[in-house]
Amino acid sequence: MGAFVASLGVAAAWPLWLLPLALLPLLRSASRRSPVSAVSAAPADPLSAALGAVLTAAGMLALGGLILALAGPFRAGETVTRTGIGAQVSMLIDRSGSMNETFAGRQPSGAEESKAAASRRILGAFVGARAHDLFAVTAFSTAPMLVVPMTDRREAVRAAIAAIDRPGLDYTNVARGLGMALSQFGAGAPGVSRALLLVSDGAAVIDPRIQAQLRAEFAKVRPNLYWLFLRTKGSPSIHDKPAGEDTPQAAPERHLDLFFKSLGVPYRAFEAEGAEAVAGAVRQIEALERDPIPYTEIRPRRDLTAYAYAAAALGLLVLVLAKLAEADFLRGASRPGDARAAQADRDPAPRRAAA
Amino acid sequence: MSRATRPLRHLPIARNLRDRRFQALAAALALALGAALAGPLPLTRSGVAVLAVVDITGSMNVRDYTVDGKPASRLDTAKAALRRLVPDLPCGSRLALALFTERRPFLLFAPIEVCADFAPLDGALDGLDWRMAWEGDSRIAAGLHRAIAMAGELDTDLLFLTDGQETPPLPSTGLPAFEGRPGAVRGLIVGAGGYGLSPIPKFNDRGRETGFYGATDVPQENRFGPPPADAESREGYNPRNAPFGAAAAEGTEHLSSVREAHLKALAGQTGLTYAHLAGPDGLAGPLLAAATPRPLPGRFDPRPVLGGLALALALAAFLAGLIPADGLRALPRSSPKSRM
After folding, report:
1. Are A141 and B134 an interchain contact pair (Cβ–Cβ within 8 Å)?
2. A10, A24, A31, A33: which to substitute to probe chain B, counting the most B Cβ within 10 Å?
3. What pLDDT digit, counting tens, does each position of A177-190 carry?
4. What is the CATH number of the domain that holds B210?
5. CB contact under 8 A, A49 and B336
6. Do A316 and B106 touch (CB under 8 A)?
7. pLDDT at B148
8. Alpha helices in A95-249 (DSSP H)
């Protein structure tokens, strides 16, 4: 009961200042006034007194109900935390210019799909399929860009993914992007599964100084790391050793893979050379990220305005019927000398009908 | 005829029906019943769909605004203005966000609904940072032209927030030609910055502030393309070897103020409206005036109107008791008997 009262609220508080007006029926009546020379001359009539009290109460109910209804009463909604299956997914998406080429490394023509368009389609479906995941989107090329912070608003995440097949920028500066994607996890609840999904079509050398910082960040956040490498035909695979010197400059993809493996977090790389392979990789990630995650469900507030109007209408109904059944003390007394008795007779009956 | 029903015949029903207070109470009853049963009425409201393009080039770091008594940069003020704009837009309006540096806008996300998705939208606006910039140039005319094309593709209006400082300066030939149709995309150019010149902060490659730009740090004149008309009168002018004159260009390009004349010229060229950003408030008014109103399904709740009328009528019925219905034959009395 206490919780129920605590959950009540009004949409606008100012009409409540009018509530004292609901006391008006104590002072005034809506009935016609009949002059009587001496009220005390009438015999005490408990029925009339009771009817008068009922009418006063009806008036207070009508005015009070209308004022309360104007304030818009409601029972507050609540946020319920439940546990579902999902994860916090921070997506780090390459927006460099080469993402706008096809997997064959050409400008898309006709029905061909660019790498960015394929990832847009497949990631959009991924976001739609996961009911209780939280998503964050970070883009990177020359600089990292925070696109959407960690959120459960699927529409916003989809809008961010819808933008990834727009013309990209110049470079693939993955290190700073990783830093920002890690910062998207925030403090978060303990025990929540976290996944960092890197979607890129290339790699870059990570500055050794930044490597140390990233290592520390990864050790702190401990996400599951997935690298969806959209490999262009003919370009080196992440497993290819270069013919010459095996340096990060010569084979950035291979060395980024080695760096990820050395981080000590669960890591999987998916090399996709076509849209089907991308879809397959995303399906695997979806199957892997199946841990309990707390999510919030919002129960809507319940509008009580209609009840307040119904209560006011009940009070008004009593008043209207009383007005309809109003008798005139003097005019109605057609039989002289019997006026008082007639009234005592007459009045209670219609009132009873009215009530 | 029973004793109970007999008096009903003597009721002055006709007189009761004529009673103003009866009529008021009956009308109030009808209104209250209507309000109790009425649902929201469908209504078409107007909202907007806007692509907000925020200039994040270096000159937007100039601190020539004051927010809460502290100096605030143009970018911070523009961000605050956008964050305050979002709750001021009618629900159902949509906002897309793009960054501008170099010569083109970079779309961060397609339009997002401003009420249901308020939290991520607000977070994304808060996350805007000059460090997201990918190039130092600031070719605003080119960026604006492409932003207009992008807004056209997204089927939105445009809100372009910039200080109007072109880096490098425009060539002597003036504005680049606008290839689109002026007025096809409506919207607002918002000029950020004060009217007086202020120094532009300089940052090192770690993102730390290291001072201000000096006169020799920035190009003061655009020396691509044909020389200006007054070049011949410059000292050391030589048509082949020194077409721009022999002296180094001097100017105030290392200082920044809002370039209203330039922005107004751009607005005129592209059919947009110009407004100055005076502070973090008041962006909604000019935007709603400049943007295309888009029909949105809305709801109108008729209950406050019905309930307010009912309350007024009911109060009138009670307050009318102050004046006796049959004239001033007796002083008002409030004993139960006199209420008959």
Report:
1. yes
2. A33
3. 898 899 888 776 66
4. 3.40.50.410
5. yes
6. no
7. 92
8. 115-129, 154-162, 174-183, 208-221
Residue A336: is the preceding peptide bond cis (ω within 30°)?
Answer: no
- List, in sequence order, every residue forming a beta bridge with A197; answer none if it has no partner: A91, A226
Residues belonging to chain A:
355
Across B241-306, the runs of DSSP E, i.e. the strands, are 255-256, 273-276, 294-300
In chain A, positions 12-71, which contact chain B (CB-CB < 8 Å)?
Answer: 18, 21, 24-25, 27-36, 39, 42, 48-49, 52, 55, 59, 62-63, 65-67, 69-70
B245 and B143 together in one domain = no
- Architecture of the domain spanning A83-297: 3-Layer(aba) Sandwich (3.40)
* B203 shares its domain with B231: no
**Is ipTM strictly over 0.90?**
no
Q: Which of B32, B37, B330 sits opposite A35 (nearest CB)?
A: B330
* Over residues A260-278, mean pLDDT: 86
- Terminal C-alpha separation, chain B: 25
Q: Is the pLDDT of residue A348 over 50?
A: no
Q: Is B328 exposed, middle or buried, given 0-12, 13-18 or 19+ CB atoms closer than 10 A?
A: exposed
Chain A positions in Cβ-Cβ contact with residue B320 (cut-off 8 Å)? 30
Closest residue in chain A to residue B129, using alpha carbons only: A145
Structurally, how many domains does chain B consist of? Answer: 2
Whether B281 maps to a domain, the answer reads yes
Give per-residue pLDDT as tens, B266-319.
999 999 999 999 888 888 889 888 888 888 877 788 888 999 999 999 888 888
Which of A66-80, A94-108, A217-231, A260-274 has the lowest average pLDDT?
A94-108
Same domain, B172 and B242: no
